[in-house]
Amino acid sequence: MAYAGLSSTQQRADVVAYLRSISPNAPALPPAGQAAAPATAPAAPAAAAAAPAATPAAAPAAAAASIGTLLASADPAKGEALFKRQCAACHTANEGGRNGVGPNLYDVVGKPHGHLEGFSYSAALKSKQGPWTYDDLSNWLAAPSQYAPGTRMAFAGLKNPEDRANVIAYLRSLSANPQPLP
Question: Where is the Cytochrome c domain (predicted)?
Fold first, then answer.
């Protein structure tokens, strides 16, 4: 397997969190601040492994800004670049585009959950009522498996609120009649 791995501690932590979320028998995590180091690992990597435990503590401060506030200064071009890196392997976003592993996302903002004919949505998404609001999209992009437990979307999420706002601004731009900003 020619895979270089994930160099970001946060991305590795996100993958572990996702794998734990789909495992019926996930082992218990060590207490916060205490990382279990492999028996052969030197002390420095063990200290680096403890970093993910500290990261969530910063999340509440970042979460204080509403998605509406973040969208006011969001950059759709940055969102498009992030979409191409993180989403385009499974989703298309062109008008009339085909569904891939995931549905085509053209004109998704403001549309009902699971609205595309011909795409087989998970029961988790079919059960969601109402349109894709900006808050819904932000929550979905932050942690799909928490927003819709049982979703088939195998993506850990975008933890950075500005990244989510940029992607949402890009998705908003993919419409003949973009939804008004909050």
Answer: 74-175
Considering the domain boundaries, does residue 167 fall inside one?
Answer: yes
pLDDT for 28: 72
Number of domains forming the structure of the chain: 1
Distance of alpha carbon 68 from the chain centroid: 18
Q: At what angle do helices 51-63 and 9-22 cross, to 10 degrees?
A: 90
As given in the structure block, the two tokens for residue 58 are 């910063």
DSSP string, 83-151: HHHHTTTT---STTPPP-SS---TT-TTSBTT--TT----HHHHT--SB--HHHHHHHHH-HHHHSTT-
Mean pLDDT of 83-110: 96
Residue 38 inside a domain? The answer is: no
Give me the domain span that covers residue 81.
67-174
86 Cβ partners below 8 Å, 6+ apart?
A: 155, 158, 167
Structure tokens at 43: 């002390």
Taking only the tens place, the pLDDT of each residue in 54-92 is 434 344 444 458 999 999 999 999 999 999 999 999 999
**CA 23 to each of CA 18, 51, 84: distance values in angstroms, whole numbers, following the listed order:** 9, 23, 29
Residue 128: give its domain's CATH number. Answer: 1.10.760.10
Average pLDDT over the chain, rounded to an integer: 82
Is 102 part of any domain?
Answer: yes
